[in-house]
Amino acid sequence: MSTASLAADLVRMFRAEGRIVIVGASLAGLRAAEALRDKGFCGPLTLIGDETHEPYDRPPLSKQVLKGWVRADHTKLPRMRDIDAQWRLGVAATGLDRVNKQVLLATGDAVPYDRLLIATGVRARPWFNPAEAALQGVFTVRTCDDAARLQAALRAGPKRVLVVGSGFVGSEMASVCCELGLPVTVAERGGGPLVGPLGGVIGDIAARMQRDAGVDLRTGVSVEALDGDAGGHVRRARLSDGTTLDVDVVVASLGSIRNVEWLAGAGLAAGFWGVGCDAGCRAFDINGVVTDNVFVAGDVARQPHVLYEYQFISMEHWDNAVCGAQVAANNMINLETERRPHLPLPSFWSGQFGVNIKGVGVCSFGDEIVFTQGSPEDYRFAAAYGHRGRIVGAVTFNHGKWLPYYAAMIERSAPFPPPPPGYDRASDPAPMPARFPDPRVPTEMPDVVLTGHDPTSRGAEFHWAREPA
Amino acid sequence: MRIVVDLNRCQGYAQCVPLAPDVLEMLGEEALAYDPNPDDAQRQRVLRAAAACPVQAIMVETHTPDGPEPEE
């Protein structure tokens, strides 16, 4: 028997009898399970999730749900096929034993696997002071239970809401408060809203948009403490500029933490930034060697991208979870020559203050920006990001139909500034610095940053921004 | 019934909205808002709306969940 036919037999056998375990029962986990069955996997399939809810969609949680249009428990994801899986919901994975190929659960059980998919995603970064985080009226928004609680608090008509942090989620929540007619203050440590993902030029526009809508936007300040009343309800926030605010709802929108703790000791390349894997979703071990049986998809995955100098990038984007899951599923049950790469052009959307914001590419990889269409004054424009003379990202405000035009240019590595489109040209087509925060500036977290991207200039610096309280 | 719209793919053509106006609506000129859990009575309308989408961004549940049970 030839080696090739032996290998083909092994694949057939694995598809018939292999055991696949998916840890993480959200968008990526569910779509991976569906794709595995679609592609002919017939063996036992187990889905493990720490929430008691079956997989649900998260984007509506910071929008329709908070506005009260949609109930928090009404965002369950549609099922596109029968997956015939064993579900273990409401139980967290606590460990991974790669030697014996077992996922360890909080219940003490061990679930054996032949191939494993890690899709544990991220969680909201909690308020940094646990005693203050426990005050009534202090929220994060990541799960549908979070959204249900916050929606109830907003419905009760708080006198003032404080949103800490103004990334996409924080800005969306501020927008919801405005629509609900609630007075809202946004405290942002950086120079403006959305500066992290989109840079300071767009941040200035987003800041104007918030202030036009009536948001009390404070930039360059951090919230140092929250004070509660005798009943344990938050009443006051103290800011780094010495001012205080009377607030009764505080939403901490401080970004996310990757759910990798359960992988401690498993010998995988898992850490602060997620689980490193190749473009085929195969996890790397701690030495950077690719594993055969462990795959990663969704927010927790971090993989090299050809368009971005092979930098490892994690994408907390909806379609990254869907497409990554499908590629991982394919590669779990195929041999090398049938494997596919997961090379998405990242894309994202956000709705806030009546403006539809959409983007493609990795905007923060750019250092220059140019307005290509429309007018920032009207919150209706397209802008392109450039790096070393080529276009690497684009963002549109109420101009989403043009996004495929820019996506195609990014995929072709077109020059920056891009050739002017034949429609609705911007009045000032001169590139300018995009003003992203310097990645070497320490954040609140102890942090390692890499400097330089090619082997000769590469180095690591460890930052300890602030002594822990 | 359950639906989800891939809002990356959605280009705001709004072809779907008049076909299922109780489920789908436009926010401004290009953003779609939708009820992810419409009443079953809306099923035929939602299916027509999904079929009318030029970029096929609307996914309608084709299968009833096989009943995951939370562990005690």
UniProtKB/TrEMBL annotation, chain A:
SUPFAM superfamilies: FAD/NAD(P)-binding domain, FAD/NAD-linked reductases, dimerisation (C-terminal) domain
Domain FAD/NAD(P)-binding: 19-321
Region annotation (Disordered) ranges: 418-469
Domain spans labelled Reductase C-terminal: 348-417
InterPro entries: FAD-oxidoreductase/Apoptosis, FAD/NAD-bd_sf, FAD/NAD-binding_dom, FAD/NAD-linked_Rdtase_dimer_sf, Reductase_C
Biased composition (Basic and acidic residues): 460-469
Cofactor(s) needed by this chain: FAD
Compositional bias per record (Pro residues), positions renumbered to this chain: 430-440
Keywords: FAD, Flavoprotein, Oxidoreductase
Gene3D superfamilies cross-referenced by the UniProt entry: 3.30.390.30, FAD/NAD(P)-binding domain
Domain of life: Bacteria
Keyword Oxidoreductase: yes
PANTHER family linked to this entry: APOPTOSIS-INDUCING FACTOR 1, RIESKE DOMAIN-CONTAINING PROTEIN-RELATED
Protein name: FAD-dependent oxidoreductase
Organism: Nocardia tengchongensis
Automatic annotation (TrEMBL), chain B:
Swiss-Prot/TrEMBL keywords: 3Fe-4S, Electron transport, Iron, Iron-sulfur, Metal-binding, Transport
Signal sequence residues: none
Cofactor: [3Fe-4S] cluster
Domain of life: Bacteria
Keyword Iron (UniProt): yes
Gene3D superfamilies, A to Z: 3.30.70.20
PANTHER family, per database record: FERREDOXIN
Name the record gives this protein: Ferredoxin
Organism: Nocardia tengchongensis
